[in-house]
Each structure stands twice: as structure tokens, then as C-alpha cells.
Amino acid sequence: MLAATTSAVPPAASASQEDVHLRTPPASAEFSGEIAESSGSGLTQAVPFSSGNPRIEETRGIMHLYPEEVASSTTLPVGRKPLVCVIAVPNHMTYADFCRFCGAFIQRMLEMRIVRTDGADDQYCVIIRFDDQISADGFYQHFNGKRFSSLEGDTCCVRYTIDVQYTGLIEHAQSSVTSSAEQPSCPVCLERLDQDTNGILTTICNHSFHCSCISKWTDSSCPVCRYCQQQPGKSTCAVCGTSENVWICVICGFVGCGRYKEGHAIRHWKDTQHCYSLELETQRVWDYVGDNYVHRLIQSKTDGKLVELNFHCTHADEKYGSCECNVDFGFDEALLNSKLETVVGEYNDLLTSQLDNQRKYYESMLLEIKEDTEKEISEAIKKAVSLKLQKLQIKLDKYIEENKFLEDINENLLKNQEMWKDKVKLLEERERVALKQRDEKIQSLEEQLRDLIMHIESQKVIDEPQDGSISSEVKGGTVLPVEPASSTSNIGSSKHGKKNRRRN
Q1: What is the pLDDT of residue 172?
Q2: Residue 344 burial (CB < 10 Å; 0-12/13-18/19+)?
Q3: Residues 455, 460, 463: CA angle, nearest 5 degrees
Q4: 130 by DSSP, 3-state: which?
Q5: What is the phi-psi region of residue 245: left when phi exceeds 0, alpha when psi lies from -120 to 50, beta otherwise?
Q6: In 473-482, which positions are buried (b, 16+ CB within 10 angstroms) versus exposed (e)?
Q7: Do 249 and 274 contact (CB within 8 A), yes or no?
Q8: Which of 2, 95, 158, 377 has the most CB atoms around its CB within 10 Å?
Q9: Which stretches does UniProt call biased (Polar residues) (predicted)?
């Protein structure tokens, strides 16, 4: 995250460093004047930082922060200042995005400074000075641990800052007027840069603006020098991924490594016949067919002008090959224009021929791709048809097996039906016999019941007091059994028989 070290800061450290190397950017005079009063006691976290355009000048320094475990939402460090640092802000957040993220606290900020930390190319830090301690504490409690965006996992880490010390200024090239001169007014609104009325934001390239003005700038580059905090990544080989000795094809844009690495650029030439390749480090063009450099002009890194590659003057700079001799500039300009026209014509002819070869190459590639595609389609169709047939055959076998199973079940059911029919007939016969036996038994019981009733009635008649002669006769007689009568005619004969028996 940050290349930070824990060290003890003596009270006299800031003074000694400022006397030797300090060269504070003009826009941050008030900013550095107040924060130079370091407490200088106890353990702090020293984080080296830098700012400025690395191609022109670069300001370096060290900011001393309170450790993360010292401050919390409930316990704040004693002796803190209204100075905080937001570390590890992702590079995709522009200045306007960060100002919108701060919200209402932007009105309580006197100055913001964007700096970069060593070893963190995709992040930057923001040093913020508030107008009072209450605003600084509120900003810390509200934003510490809060996510920058609901769609991403980056969180805001706010740390209280003890001191910011500038250790030196490194000049890489001749400084321009816009980068070194003091900016008394905002380049956007042309109003005076006054901290009392509006907060000041100093970009990573040391240009200052009003926070309200820079918040309307949606681009990630600086409005003055166009330096972008999101530096483009290094080009790498499309095959092996190396970033050293990288060449790019001027015809199709393929990026490959040189012959001293894996030689993927040469392989691309052999495969496509694109013979011209540009070395990204030196901006020189190599011809693989002629096996030499074919460029005529290159761009100067100092002033951006086109100069001849091998042109050298006794008064010229040994590194860039340009001079400022008193010559006829009109003649040189005409000569240069004629050379440019010749180069442009040659390049157009060369580009036309290379594009024609490129067209033929891509047509052959398209034909091969078409043939391969048709072959793959036919194979895929055959494979799909065979797979479909296999699935259908599996389903057919399954249905045949199910049909056989159902036929077996039907046959068994038919057999069971005949068996149950026989069982039903047998049960019906048994029921008929049982009913017949029951009827016969009932009839027998009824006859016995009648005989019993008749016996009881005759006994009652005998027991009743009647004529003595009759009773004596009856008592001396015997009762004979009578056969059952099957109809009403038998009833009368049975009654007549009873009378005869009584008489006896």
C-alpha cells in the first residue's frame, strides 16, 4: 500500500532538513509554513512522497503521520492539528470525483495537495488542511473506513498528519514558465488564490486552482500542463509479456520483443511479411528486409521538433543532436519541407504497398478461417447428429423395455382374471348351498316351534277343569307326533287328528 517506516522524529530534524534542501513550491507557501511546526515527540510513521511532472521537475518530501492504531472513532490523538492525509486514493478518481466525495467538508478546507507515494503508481495521497480542528475531526470520523464507491472495494483511509517536510527539488529538464513561476491567480476563473474565500487544490504537477473551479474539470489531466495522473502503462510483448526491448509493427500494431529477448517481433515479420517495426524506447524504425534502420527524422525530446537522426553540429547537444547556430532559417525550413514532402511521398508509397500486402494476407487468413469454420461446423453437425441418434436410441430401448413390461403385466392380469372368475363361481355355488341349508334349517325350526306351541296349548287344555270323564280319559291317553303339513289343507286334517287324539 504505502512504503512507510516507523521512526522517532527529533525536534531539530525539520529545521536541519529545511535549511539544506527545502524548496517549497510557490503555491504552498502558507501550507508548508504552518505544518512545519512539528510536535516531534513520540513514534510516528514517515511516508516519503513526491509531486510535480517527472519530466520537468519533481519535489520530494516526507510526511509524518500518526500510526493507525493511535486514532480511532472514539479516541483521537492528543496534540493533533487540523491537518489530515487521505492515503491510497485510486488513480481512477479525478480531482472532481474527490471533491464530490468530500461533499460539504470541501467548504471547510483551506488547502488540498495531491502527492504520490513511492511504489504506488496506481494510487495517490491527498494532504488536507482545515480551517479548524472540529472540521478535521468530523472529516476523520465521517470518512475513515468509508468506501469511495459502492461498486468498488477501495476504502478511504484518513490519518492525522504531524508534519510535512520538503527535502528537495529535482530538475529533470528545463522548467517551463507555467511550471516554475508563481501562480497568483486561478488559471480557470482568473481570480486571486485566496484561502480565506475559497479552498485551494494543488494538483500532482504543482499547479494550484480553486476547489470550486477544479471540481468542474471532469478530466484527469491538469488544465494547465495537461499532465495526467493516470500514466499509461508500459507496453509489453503480446506473447511473452516482457517490457524490455519492445517493438511495434507500423502496419498492424503488433507488439513483440526484439531479437535479444524472445524474438517475437521477428516471428511476426516472418509470418505476415510486415517488414517495418518501431522500437518504442528510441522511436526508430527497423527494416527486417534490408536489416537496417530506415527512418530519417525523429522527434526531439526537448522542444518536440523533428530533427534528422544522424545530424550533428559542433555546437549541438551531444544527446539530442540539435543546435542553435545562426544560420539561414528560411533555407533550412525550405530544405526541411522538401525533405518532409519526399519522406511523405515515400511513406505513402510504402504504406500503400504494405497495406496491399496486408490485405492479401488478411484475405488468405479469412479464407483459412472460413475453411476451418466450415470444417468445424460440419464436424459439429456430425457430432450433434450422432449424439442425437444415440439419445434417440437410448429412448427407444427404454420405451421397448417399458412396453415389454406392460405386456407382461397385461398377461398376468388376464390369467388372474380367469382365476378370479373360477373363484367367484365357486363362491356363488357355496353361497347357494349355504342358503339352501339355511332355508331347510329354518323350516325345521319352524315345525319344531309349531309342535312345541301345540304341545303347550294341549297341556293347557288338559290342565283346565272340565268334565271329569273327559279329563280322566285325556290324562290316561298319550300324545302322538303329527307330520308337518305343507299347505292349508293339511292344517285342517291336522286339527281333525288332534280332536281324535283328544278323544282317545
Answers
A1: 53
A2: exposed
A3: 125
A4: strand
A5: left
A6: ebeeeebeeb
A7: yes
A8: 95
A9: 38-52
pLDDT value for 69 = 73
pTM over 0.70: no
CB atoms within 10 A of CB 99: 22
CA geometry: angle 474, 475, 481, nearest 5 deg: 70
* 144, 158 Cβ separation under 8 angstroms: yes
The architecture of the domain spanning 246-341 is: 2-Layer Sandwich (3.30)
pLDDT given for residue 306 in this prediction? 55
94 backbone dihedrals φ, ψ, rounded to 5°: -80, 175
The pairing of strands 157-171 and 200-202 is: unpaired
Nearest to 272 by CA among 251, 246, 292: 251
Give 264: exposed, middle or buried? Use CB within 10 Å, 0-12, 13-18, 19+.
buried
Tell which phi-psi region holds residue 235, choosing left (phi > 0), alpha (psi between -120 and 50) or beta: beta
Backbone angles phi, psi at 48, to 5 degrees: -75, 145
Q: What was the pLDDT predicted at 1?
A: 43
Question: CB-based contacts of 311: which residues, under 8 Å, 6+ apart?
Answer: 321
Q: Which of 133, 127, 121 is nearest to 159 (CA)?
A: 127
Q: Please state the length of the chain.
A: 504
Using CA atoms, how far residue 341 sits from 250, 285, 294, 345, in Å, is 20, 19, 16, 6
pLDDT at 192: 81
Reading the block at residue 113, the C-alpha cell is 495537495
Classified as helix, coil or strand, 83 is strand
Please give the pLDDT value at position 479. Answer: 54
pLDDT for 299 equals: 55
Residue keyed to cell 447428429: 385
**Which residue type does 141 have?**
Q
Ranges under pLDDT 70 in the chain: 1-43, 72-74, 170-183, 195-198, 229-233, 295-337, 465-504
CATH superfamily name and code, 5-214: RRM (RNA recognition motif) domain (3.30.70.330)
**In this structure, what is the dihedral angle of CA atoms 23, 28, 29, 31, given to the nearest 10 degrees?**
-120
pLDDT at 25: 45
